[in-house]
Amino acid sequence: MADDERTSFDPKTWLIAPGEAGAPPPLVAVSQPQARTMPPRATVLPPRPVAAAAGKPPYALAAMLSVLLLTGGAAAAYLTRSASPAAVPMAAQPGAPSVVAPPPPEVIDASRRTLVVAGPGDVAATLAGTGIAADAAAAATRAAQAAIGPDPGEIRMVIDLTGPDGARRMTRLEATRTDGSGAILTVRPDGSYGSEVQQARLTTEVQVVRGEMDATSFYNAAVTAGITDSLIEPFAKALSFDFNFATDVHPGDVFEAAFEQKVNPQGEQVGSPTLIYVSIQTEAKSKALYRFLAPGETEAGWFDGNGHSTQTALMRTPVDGARITSGFGMRFHPVLHYTRLHGGVDFAAPIGTPIYAAAAGVVTSSSPTACAGNMLILHHDNGWETRYFHLSRYADGIHPGVRVTQGETVGAIGTTGFCTTGPHLHFEVHINGEKVDPMTVDYGTGKALSGDGLAAFRRERDRIDRARAAPTTS
Ligand SMILES: [Zn+2]
User: What pLDDT was estimated at residue 77?
Assistant: First the structure.
């Protein structure tokens, strides 16, 4: 169960020590990854300077606003000024009786200010800082806060003002959350506020990213292709039943991901993207999977184009970004110094690398032993058992009797116990008390959708495929 390896493994690199089976060609032979298909849509918001301003204490914001008002709103990054279309004066309209009065002074000062504050608590100071009367600011604050609620989170404020310094009035206030929900307040002639509730106005965009494996790592290739950082692990996990990323995937192999992103009326991304499609094409095999919530299930799973779940009994590689350093079978043990059965598979990865539950099950043991160090045993619903050796630590909440889901992080790579010579996971599968080779044992096929579930899946599959085919997804 110990590991003969002396080199540490960097999960952000595919490079395997020269001479090992499956080593990729040398770096020099590999060209830069080609943007062979559509470039990804920008997945990251452009920096929003308002956020920095919004993070300041309210008095700073108010002071800032005051300065801007005093200086006539000099070009500042965090505030925009423009004439409010709602404030076009009656006197300017052709045909209006050209009697005595010159245009009222507020015509000149009609302005709109748009800014984002850190939360509902900043609304009062912001309105007070506009220069409107204190009682009007307080009333507007109450009305705005009632409309947007107390929950924390950024508030986008659009404030229409009219009148000169000293007699400034607010004519309209728009206060909305990042999802577009909130209210528009308008000032009635008697000074009270009319409120128009705004519903959340989020739209969902499907974005498609394609790329090619490079010589460094899937992580690197994925980032280059434009896959958001947070989607890389789910991408690899979705395909982990079909691919061993350490041995099956090579430079030049092609991958694709599609994900959904909620977008607010300002075009800003709201919330995290959700992966809905993954595929990898290698010389040996290709696989395309669609995310789908099957009827009666509480969590979405991954299905091939025919509606077969990929979720087999066990994950073959229950660790992120590892490579096999020692397989199952008879070998001369490097620590114990005699030939015996190596009853599992060793995956080398740096200390701290997450280890996943290979299948749903119940923790039956989570305590150290002399040889295996920190060991974890899971008992699975089909009667099989998996064992994980040499952990540096157990994940929070991992104790005997606790139920875990497939793919859940249960611990981290380590090198505890005397039967190890370097950081790795020794992984065993037991069936009816017998150790079997985790790499070759038949894990069975995933269940197939049928009836209404299959029909619903096909609609979802076709929707995703249309988005993938659409030229606008570049
Ligand atoms: Zn081992």
Answer: 29
